[in-house]
Amino acid sequence: MTPVPPTIRSAYDAHMKPDDIETFQRDGVVVLRNLVNPALLEKLAEAVELNLAEPGEWASDYTPSGSSGRFFGDYVNWPRIDGYRHAALDSSLPFAARQLMRSSTARLFHEHVLVKEPSTTEITPWHHDEPYYCVDGAQNVSLWISLDPVPKAAGVEFVVGSHLWGRRFVPRRFVDSVAYAAAENGFELVPDIEANRDEHEIVSFDIEPGDVLAFHFRTLHAAPGTAGLTPHRRRAVSLRYLGDDAVYALRPWLHSPPFAQHKLSLGGPLDDWRFPLIASTAPPPAH
Questions:
Q1: Domain boundaries, the chain
Q2: CA dihedral in degrees (60, 62, 65, 68; nearest 10)?
Q3: 82-99, pLDDT tens digit by residue?
Q4: CATH number attached to the domain at 9-264
């Protein structure tokens, strides 16, 4: 990967509704309608096609041989794919992230593309994201950008308020839904949400291209396959951002993405070219 110098710009172009910020803080998920314009959607669509044609070093294909459809995932390709880099660093999205997090800054953690082709039966199991990551902190957000219409029945589901439970769950592998490890060191196994759906407030949404699902790293979520639910591909690009309180952390398992520690200090900030600081309420630096 080629280092990209971090840049800090003032946030004067993001106009978030106070109700959306409050919903995100309370529920751990909010839909931001028409946040991404058609030009940026086109750039992202081109980026996804390039990514599919030229997968990165950490790409995964979760579909077993002989199964219908395809479930593809990849991440941390923004340094080499212009469309991802433009959306993550140069659009209004990091400024929206900063405001949702109620943070004075926004730092890119990584981008993550997930593609489910029509007739894909593989699910995304119930999980939340923070235990996969080498980062701790309450100020964070994933901006899930769909490039295709997604009906509610085929969309991502969220357990409302689960980011405030004060619980952390062992990650699960997407290829077979198996937990990375047994419960240990403050991490428990994901509860059986499906068997106890009536005990939770679970939401999903009808999504159109340009809408963004914003959710917290600790919000439990899952997604079905596409088979029988939608004739469309489900291409989504998630941009994951960190706020003021983010610090480097270790896990009992290999974190994902598997960033090397390099010069980062345990419990210290992620001051590294791999995690550019983008949006700030401070005046821009002099040039």
A1: 9-264
A2: -130
A3: 999 999 999 999 999 999
A4: 2.60.120.620
